[in-house]
Automatic annotation (TrEMBL):
Pfam families: adh_short. This is SDR family NAD(P)-dependent oxidoreductase. It comes from Zoogloea oleivorans. It comes from the Bacteria. Gene3D superfamilies: NAD(P)-binding Rossmann-like Domain. SUPFAM superfamilies: NAD(P)-binding Rossmann-fold domains.
Amino acid sequence: MNSSDNKPVALITGVGPGTGSALVRRFVDGGYRVAMLARDAERLAALAAELPDARAFACDVTDSAAVDATLARVRVELGIPAVLIHNAVAGGRGSFLDMDPALLERGFQVNVMALLHLARALAPDMIAAGAGAIIVTGNTSSQRGRAPFAGLAPTKAAQRILCESMARELGPQGVHVAYVVIDAVIDVPWTRRAFAGQPDSFFMQPAAIAGEVWHLAHQDSSAWSFLHELRPFGETW
């Protein structure tokens, strides 16, 4: 038997070059086998080649049939996930008068409906085990609808409320659901270009986010968090 067969399994969506990859690294370092979901097969393959306990599953989370097929593969190849981290995100800046409504529609599909589909598929096994964690990475758009964010905020608000409903139902059954409100510009190459000249302290580090998600997924059940806010020390709020 492979020694990794006894390791728990985490499934992480939205594995990109920033927070997603950092989440994968943190959970692999913590002794998990990780199922990585994203549309970019090449990026996933490169990360899987670097991390033997991370497995690439190229998948568009808005395609429910593809998600079902992927989850079936994950169960066969890795095992039943004990942790779900929904990090995939869609949306963008735009006034409600000017934006393409398709932006909002895709945001609901990725941010809300994909979460619903994944949670409905994975929660029953967690309930049966009496343990598990579902963690969602969100942002301050889930709490306020500023004018330029009409293409994102409605979907993130719906995502947060869905998480709260899930938490209230699943918590008494031993499954921890938490929502991470990220109030920051995350440090990735494109944000460094967009905010050129800002000091390092302006940016939030992906590895720091991953560390907090790890903490949430392993909180003692006597002191669970639901809404978990993160911001750099210098952020005005």
